[in-house]
Amino acid sequence: MARILVQKEEITNQIENQYTKMESKIVGRTVRTGDATFNGKIPWASYIKQFEAASETNTWSPHEKAVALTLALRGEALDVLQALSADDTGDYEELL
User: Fold this and answer.
1) Is residue 31 part of a domain?
2) CA separation (Å) from 90 to 10, 46, 73, 83, 95?
3) What sign does the CA torsion over 81, 85, 86, 90 have?
4) Nearest Cα to 33, choosing from 18, 49, 53?
5) What are 73's strand-pairing partners?
6) According to the lineage, what is the superkingdom (predicted)?
7) What are phi and psi for residue 77, nearest 5 degrees?
8) Is residue 53 assigned to a domain?
């Protein structure tokens, strides 16, 4: 159990680092995600349509989409990141 908590903390730190890097790259424009989060309790197909609409409106790059999606995950949905490497969490296609 302690190992899982350590892994979860490491993933959270990686996500925060990626978010900080993304934030510095998008100076001069606002990226809006709304307060749409995904916790695995609503249908994925419905959520990802909403997410893709936000992505298109904000003209996100694939990396920006990966970071935004990673930040939107909550609860059990966030736990799936444990199976991915740090590189894969920055790859939108791998997250899908």
Assistant:
1) no
2) 15, 22, 14, 13, 8
3) negative
4) 53
5) 38
6) Eukaryota
7) -65, -35
8) yes
8 A C-beta contact, residue 11 and residue 81: yes
Tens-place pLDDT, residues 22-80: 544 444 555 555 557 888 888 999 889 888 988 888 888 998 888 888 888 888 888 88
Flag whether pLDDT at 94 surpasses 50. Answer: yes
Domain assignment of residue 88, given as a range: 2-26+37-95
Closest CA to 70 of 34, 23, 29, 19: 19
Confidence at residue 40, expressed as pLDDT on a 0 to 100 scale: 87
Evaluate if pTM is beyond 0.70.
no
Return all residues near 80 (Cβ < 8 A) that are at least 6 apart.
73
Give the residue, 55 or 19, on which the prediction is more confident.
Answer: 55
Question: CB count, 10 Å around CB of 53?
Answer: 11
